[in-house]
C-alpha cells in the first residue's frame, strides 16, 4: 500500500469520526432543562415545611412548659413535704393570677424567639408597633371589637349546642381576686399580658414569617394555630375567629399596635363582666348588646372616613405554590402534626374531668 493511499484512508477516518462526534454531541451532552418554576416550587415547599416545623415546635412548647412548671411545683412540694400548702396556695385567686402572668411570659417569648432564631429568621423584620393612618386604625379597632363581640356570641351558641347533647366542653370557672388590687391584678394577667405577648408570638412572629407565602394563607393558618393552641373546645372556635380579625388588622396596618388594643379590649370586657355577678343575666346581655351597638356605629363612621373598599382588601402574594399545596405542606409537617395532636388530645381529656 502506497504512502499516499494510507494517508488518504487516515484522513477519511478522521473526517468520519469528526462528523460522528458532531452528529452525536447533542445526545452525549443531553440534559433535560428543568423549568425555573419547578425549582422555585421545590424551594418554596422546603422553606414552608421548615417554617411550619418551627411554628409547630414553638407552639408545642407551650404545652411542654406548662407541664414542666406544674411538674416542678409538684416535685418541690413532695420533696419539702408541703403538698397541702402548695394546693392551698394555688387555690388562692391572686396567686393564680401571678402564676398566669409568669406562665404567659415563659411560653410566648423565649420559645418563639429561640426557635425562630435557630431557624435563621430575623424576628425584628416581623415586629412593628408603628402608627397607621388614624382613621384606618380607628375603623379597624372598632370593627375588630364588633367582630370579637359577635364571635363571643357565636361561641356561646356553639357551646349551648354541645350542652344540649349532654357534652360539656366548658373548662370551668375559677375564682377571681377581690377588691381593687384584685381587679387590677386580674386585668394585668387576663387582658394586658396576653394581649401583648400573644400578639407578639402569633401575629408578630408566626403570621409575619408566613406572609411570604401569601397573606390569605398566613392569616388562615396562623388563626387555626391560635385556636388550637388554646387546647379546649370551649375556646378553640372563638380563638380561631378572633385570630382572623387580629391577623387581618395586623396585615392591613403593618403593625401589632391595633391588634393588641383589640385583644386587650376583648379580654377586658370579659374581666369586667366577671365582676358583674351581682346583676342579672338579662342586664348583662343588655349591656353587651348596647356595647355592640356603640362599637358598630363607631366602626361604620370611621370606615366611611377611609377608602372603604381598600380597607377590606387583602393580597394573595406572589407565591408560586398552589393554595392546596401550601396547606398540605403546612399541616402535614411533623411539627404541626405533633402540636395539633397534643392540643386536641388535651381538649378531649378535658371533657372527662
How would you briefly describe this protein structure?
This protein has 353 residues and is mostly helical. It is built from 13 helices and no strands.
Features:
353 residues
Descriptive overview:
There is one protein chain. The chain has 353 residues and is mostly helical. The chain has helices at 3-28, 36-80, 83-90, 93-107, 110-118, 134-164, 179-210, 215-229, 236-253, 257-274, 281-304, 323-331, 334-350. α7 (179-210) crosses α9. The longest helix has 45 residues, at 36-80.
SSE succession? HHHHHHHHHHHHH
Q: Compute the number of helices.
A: 13
Oligomer: single chain
Helix content class = over 70%
What integer value in Å does the Rg equal? 29 Å
Strand count, sense and barrel status of the largest sheet are: none
Total beta strands:
0
Query: In terms of per-residue confidence, which ranges show pLDDT below 50 for 5 or more consecutive residues?
Result: 4-10, 12-25
Strand content: under 5%
Average pLDDT works out at 86
Distance between the termini: 106 Å
| Shape by Cα distribution | globular
Derived from helix and strand composition plus strand pairing, the structural class reads mainly alpha
List the SSEs and their pairings.
Layout: H1 3-28, H2 36-80, H3 83-90, H4 93-107, H5 110-118, H6 134-164, H7 179-210, H8 215-229, H9 236-253, H10 257-274, H11 281-304, H12 323-331, H13 334-350
